[in-house]
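User: tokens in, sequence out, please.
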């Protein structure tokens, strides 16, 4: 965190010499790249542990006077929590497309069929994954890659249909933007497995 702090401070000190767009680009190259290379290793941590990390971008946007929604729409800079969710979903999509590491294939296997023919299941896409989690839905499972199976199975068909991982990632950001435009206050939780099913934005 110390190294991230001084990197951010150095960028903010040069604020008068650059436009907001240039500062965001500096932040992405100098700070985001440092934070995000360890996403898969830290995702399982609880929210209180990740909060100081998320505060880095919150501080950056506050200093620029930019809201999180504006940052997403104008600079394609989603909140760090959303970026972590997208990174983990990208991993699963790579496995579904058989482009990822083979050993992950044992965790993300195609579902043979939907359990019940209901209005909810009829709206789901055709690349469903079998949920192999413990049926008690342990919290540590919810915060792992396995927790994303529930989320992945409920992502819109238009997003899942992408055979290019970059296009899939870009489309996930569009899902977030759609929830903002729809006036959803919980748009940042749209792709998160940490939210209880009964109140999840994708339910």
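Assistant: Sequence out:
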């Amino acid at each position: 965190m110390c190294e991230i702090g001084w990197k951010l401070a150095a960028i903010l000190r040069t604020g008068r010499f650059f436009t907001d767009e240039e500062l965001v680009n500096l932040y992405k190259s100098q700070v985001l790249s440092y934070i995000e290379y360890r996403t898969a290793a830290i995702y399982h941590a609880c929210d209180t542990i990740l909060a100081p990390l998320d505060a880095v971008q919150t501080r950056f946007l506050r200093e620029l006077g930019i809201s999180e929604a504006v940052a997403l729409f104008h600079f394609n800079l989603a909140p760090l929590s959303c970026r972590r969710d997208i990174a983990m979903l990208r991993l699963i999509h790579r496995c579904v497309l058989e482009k990822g590491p083979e050993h992950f294939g044992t965790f993300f296997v195609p579902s043979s069929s939907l359990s019940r023919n209901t209005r909810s299941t009829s709206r789901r896409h055709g690349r469903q994954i079998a949920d192999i989690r413990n049926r008690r839905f342990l919290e540590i499972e919810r915060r792992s890659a396995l927790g994303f199976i529930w989320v992945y199975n409920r992502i819109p068909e238009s997003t899942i249909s992408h055979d290019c991982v970059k296009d899939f990632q870009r489309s996930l950001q569009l899902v977030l933007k759609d929830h903002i435009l729809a006036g959803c206050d919980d748009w940042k939780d749209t792709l998160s497995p940490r939210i209880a099913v009964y109140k999840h934005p994708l339910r």
